[in-house]
Amino acid sequence: MLDNPEEDGDFYYVYFYRVGNSNCEKVEDSIKTYARSHSAIYFVNMDEKSKDYKKFDWNKFHEENDIEIGKVKSNGKIEYYEGESKEKYTKSKEKDEYGKTKGYEIKKADKEYLKINKKARKGYVYASLETPDIDYYTLTSEDDVTIAGVPTLLRVKNNKVDQFYFDSVEIKSIMKKLNK
Which of 21, 75, 76, 112 has its CA 20 to 30 A from that of 4? Predict the structure, then answer.
């Protein structure tokens, strides 16, 4: 993947998507607009049967990174612990080790959430980290690529990933700049 001939300057993009995925559909038009005027973008359809990548272990990730921030009261309302709030996490500007803004969702620990975070306690509330820490910068052409989800966009320069974008929000933002 990383040793393709470089065109359109000294870099190219690899776009991972899945047909019918709602997040991919959010950026589909801007990706197509970019592709019409730039030949240096490669598309990888990540259908469920694909063996071309390592799947990201979301359950382990949530177990290690989600933060208990409150309880669900008997009336269904959330009672946050002192110093915690929905806004603290959903409006966070905190960066991960790769410079990406951490994205959180607030989740009540119900039956569904307990399937993805076995360490969670039923009836409590969690700030669920939705942006995985994957080191694409050290990826080489011999490595198996780990894709946490789609859409994912990697920019490759000199056979190394020098920029990466995860999820429709980040990809939409970079496409807006690139399509000007």
Answer: 21
Where do we find the tokens 């071309």?
52
Find the angle CA(13)-CA(159)-CA(8) to the nearest 5 degrees: 45
Distance CA 108, CA 82 (A): 17
User: Could you report the per-residue pLDDT of 143-168, keeping only the tens digit for each?
Assistant: 777 888 899 999 998 888 888 898 88
Give the Cα separation of 14 and 31 in Å (integer): 11
173 phi-psi bin (left φ>0, alpha ψ -120 to 50, beta other):
alpha
pTM of this structure? 0.74
The first and second tokens of residue 7, run together, are 């065109």
- What φ, ψ does residue 132 adopt, rounded to 5°? -75, 150
Amino acid at 141: S
